[in-house]
Amino acid sequence: MSTIDFRRHRRLRRTEGIRNMVRETHLHKEDLIYPIFVKEGTNIKNEIASMPGIYQWSLDLVEQEVKEVVDLGIPSIILFGIPHEKDECGTSAYAEDGIVQQATRLVKEKFPHLTVIADTCLCQFTDHGHCGVIEDGQVLNDPTLELLVKTAVSQAKAGADIIAPSNMMDGFVAAIRHGLDDAGYHDIPIMSYAVKFASSFYGPFRDAAHSSPQFGDRKTYQMDPANRLDALREAQSDVEEGADFLIVKPALSYLDIMRDVKDRFPLPVVAYNVSGEYSMIKAAAQNGWVDEKGIVLEKLVSMKRAGADLILTYFAKDVVKWLEQ
């Protein structure tokens, strides 16, 4: 065998020390964004049946969850609100005393150095569960933009560090950018859900946020999973309109899109490791079918390798604990 000329790639895999030396992709706790669901009411800590380990929190109890995030060194959270009352226009999404606004003020008061991202959408707040104004069964684009601007400005006023609009209306980044600037919030960045597919992976989130559409679906504004060039057009529009970050959602089934976005646009890319991806692994792990730690870390590294600078994931707390072991 010594006379055969071939490369010995295994030399760089021989020991753990050597493997660590040549590792190309690294996952750090600074890469992580942790989602928190805040619900109107008191003494609420409801575990979401389809998302083991993830809870709905009332304002009087959410501080304990945020404190754990801070103590673990996770640098940022994203807030999703669940209101008591809903109406056709999602009024509580942009109310000064809305649940996201209240939660933002509380978190920033208690933990001023934690970066708070506000999800900017209407679906949790509308009685029909769609992300905008409805007329004759259709979601109206431009009237919805007006409400999204009001929501974003109210969230910035409450102290949100970053606005994350997730509605997929045409022109939403431009409208929100102008609205924030006109209100004096020139320095508040927009983390746009630039590429958001009409995915089947969102089911557990809709349980958590009580945001399922009451009729039809969201395929007229969220993207067809079969389309790649459409994703690049969407991302380009958001870049031109003033986005500061670009989210790709979901992450795992769209790693090719994430790499395309990263290669084409000079902005930080955020992978959204969505609820369905979380729940499948949790269910398999609870049945003893997979090694949860191994499969989660492998999955998140694949997102980093595909171009993600940041990862929004329900596994964030677990990941930090595993990384520090």
Describe this structure in words.
- This protein is an alpha/beta fold and 325 residues long.
- It has one domain: Aldolase class I (TIM Barrel, Alpha-Beta Barrel), CATH 3.20.20.
- 38% of the residues lie in helices and 18% in strands.
- It has eleven helices and twelve strands.
- The strands form two sheets. Strands 1, 2, 3, 4, 5, 8, 9, 10, 11 and 12 form a ten-stranded mixed beta sheet that branches.
- Helix 3 runs parallel beside helix 4 (141-158) and helix 4 (141-158) crosses helix 5 (172-182).
- It is globular, with a radius of gyration of 20 Å.
- The N and C termini lie far apart (42 Å).
- 44% of the residues are buried.
- The model has no long low-confidence stretch (mean pLDDT 92).
Topology, pairings included?
Layout: H1 16-22, E1 32-39, E2 45-47, E3 55-57, H2 62-72, E4 76-82, H3 99-110, E5 115-120, E6 133-135, E7 138-140, H4 141-158, E8 162-165, H5 172-182, E9 191-196, H6 203-209, H7 229-241, E10 245-249, H8 255-264, E11 269-273, H9 275-286, H10 292-305, E12 310-313, H11 316-324
Parallel strand pairs: 1-3, 1-4, 1-12, 4-5, 5-8, 9-10, 10-11, 11-12
Antiparallel strand pairs: 2-3, 6-7
Helix pairs in contact: 3-4, 4-5
Short descriptors:
alpha/beta, TIM Barrel, two-stranded antiparallel sheet, 325 residues, single chain, ten-stranded mixed sheet, 38% helix, heme biosynthesis
